[in-house]
Write the structure tokens for this entry.
Amino acid sequence: NAGVMQNPRHLVRRRGQEARLRCSPMKGHSHVYWYRQLPEEGLKFMVYLQKENIIDESGMPKERFSAEFPKEGPSILRIQQVVRGDSAAYFCASSPGTGSLYEQYFGPGTRLTVT
Amino acid sequence: GNSVTQMEGPVTLSEEAFLTINCTYTATGYPSLFWYVQYPGEGLQLLLKATKADDKGSNKGFEATYRKETTSFHLEKGSVQVSDSAVYFCALMDSNYQLIWGAGTKLIIKP
């Protein structure tokens, strides 16, 4: 059973470009979480999705950021018109259910660098 | 609001030394508490967890006890190895099932 896959592992974008980060959850997992880790800081929750639904996006910046988890295919975190402050590591996690009984399994992360 | 504070790193120890990484939290209610580990170039892995007061989580020789009275969940290991070198994150799960994270503590073990 493959773990959580994220790609690309490293992404370089110039200011103003779009960044698309992909996350394929573990087989059988229908819950996906996205976290951002700014340099020298801990992870911060961004969004929680189930298939075709955004359950909680309270950690997402109001502008330029969006996320989806379609019925088929990976979850996508999209950042439009990137700025230098978006440079960070973005981690995706998946779980078979929600709550403390269900471990969140993490991918290796995508390191976004905005030049 | 909910928050997690853990000791700053890096923590540098010699092999076979005793390890403590402090973690304290602020939360309403009684959240579940977690320690995650991130080895170089890899994603985060759950190391151990505790879901209620006085619970002790343990795995791979690491232990942490959920202390309600001191709002702490310190990570300990009796004898560290070079392979334990990693970044360790303390986290709590809030009522919305979000994980709230500490800043991480880098552990360096020298042979």
Notes: Chain A has no helices and eleven strands. The interface with chain B takes residues 3-4, 6, 33, 35, 40-45, 48, 56, 58-59, 91, 93, 98-100, 103-109 of chain A (CB under 8 Å). The radius of gyration of chain A is 13 Å. The mean pLDDT of chain A is 92.
